[in-house]
């Protein structure tokens, strides 16, 4: 299995570990996420992308290297979807339950890709949101 490439948050904390340096259980989970056909993304509470798997990159036409130029979820989201998504995420945090919703992402070629997002929140010990992670499904082939 290939090792997962990971990034650092804006505060410099390492969010993801290299699978080679992680313990066996963490290494397994990192490799499962990276090798999954299901697109997966992680963002901080300011919308900064801190990690994604290769399936997410492929879905939007990016290579592993080129996705690094995309800094925020908002950069991938058409303007008319942002307010609705913000409201959904705020309600999700209040309810402490995952949210499933539809939106569009910009593909690297500029086209729009309809997706379904299954978004989850990671909270700290005090109950404050730290990160969001989502499983994303491409809806373009569905009728």
Kindly summarize this structure in a few lines.
This protein has a domain at 39-138: Beta-Lactamase. Helix content is 27%, strand content 27%.
Detailed description of the structure:
- This protein is of the alpha+beta class and 143 residues long.
- It has a domain at 39-138: PAS domain (Beta-Lactamase, 2-Layer Sandwich), CATH 3.30.450.
- The chain is built from 4 helices and 5 strands.
- The chain has a 5-stranded antiparallel sheet with strand order 2-1-5-4-3.
- A hairpin with a 5-residue loop joins strand 3 and strand 4.
- The model is unreliable at 1-15 (pLDDT under 50).
List the helices and strands and how they pair.
Blueprint: H1 24-35, E1 40-44, E2 49-52, H2 54-59, H3 73-76, H4 79-95, E3 99-106, E4 112-123, E5 129-138
Antiparallel strand pairs: 1-2, 1-5, 3-4, 4-5
């Amino acid at each position: 299995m290939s090792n997962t490439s990971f990034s650092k948050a804006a505060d410099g904390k390492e969010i993801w570990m290299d699978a080679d340096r992680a313990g066996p259980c963490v290494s397994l989970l990192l490799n499962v996420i990276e090798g999954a056909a299901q697109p997966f993304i992680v963002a901080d509470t300011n919308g900064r992308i801190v990690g994604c798997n290769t399936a997410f990159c492929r879905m939007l036409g990016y290579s592993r290297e080129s996705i690094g130029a995309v800094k925020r979820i908002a950069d991938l989201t058409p303007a008319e979807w942002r307010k609705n998504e913000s409201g959904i995420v705020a309600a999700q945090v209040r309810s402490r339950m995952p949210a499933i919703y539809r939106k569009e992402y910009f593909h690297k070629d500029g086209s729009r890709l309809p997706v379904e997002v299954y978004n989850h929140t990671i909270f700290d010990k005090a109950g404050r949101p730290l990160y969001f992670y989502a499983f994303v499904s491409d809806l373009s082939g569905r009728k």
